[in-house]
Amino acid sequence: MIGAKQTEKKGSKPCMENREGKTEDRRIRKTKQAIQSSLYRLLRKKDLREIRVKELAECADINRGTFYRYYEDVEDILLESEQDFLEEIHEIFDQWDTGQTDPEQRPVKELYEVCKSHAELLEIVFAEERDPEFMIALWQLIRRKLAWKMEIECGRDGEEAESRSGFLAGGCIAILKEWIAKGWSQPSDEIAEKTERCLFLLMPERKQL
Asked: Strands, DSSP E only, in 33-153?
């Protein structure tokens, strides 16, 4: 277990353990990434319910014991991947809310860059709308954050903010789906500009996004 080792001496040993911990962290990330990528490959061929742990472990070149060290079942992989993605999106909105974003960076562009970094996941869940609950969760997250912006910064009343933000959130997801369908061929700058034009129509008080 990471960080569970006990030390008896002070001095150089904690530094050594720190290096070992970082190495172990990297190994865990590498193993989990291999498992996730293997799941995505299999999901391009079959439904999630048809994938067995044995098959997935063989695809990822690991044993079943290694798999169960990190996940309870195959569905757990997808759920964790989706949650990680939503948390990254949530973090960008939080930075935007608190004014912690880089002045040179546009939050909308950052959002799409995060989406592209999770390309394999999004290609799978958006294909034939394999996971409607995830898409609803993403829509709700975007809607909630945009509604807050409209109400606080643009002076909209709560009901109007909710209505407009729901429409905008749907538009953002539609743009994302089109981007995915075109194989991510357009630069994230262009996708962000297209989204910003939609946002400005319903949030004209916002000078910059």
From this structure: none
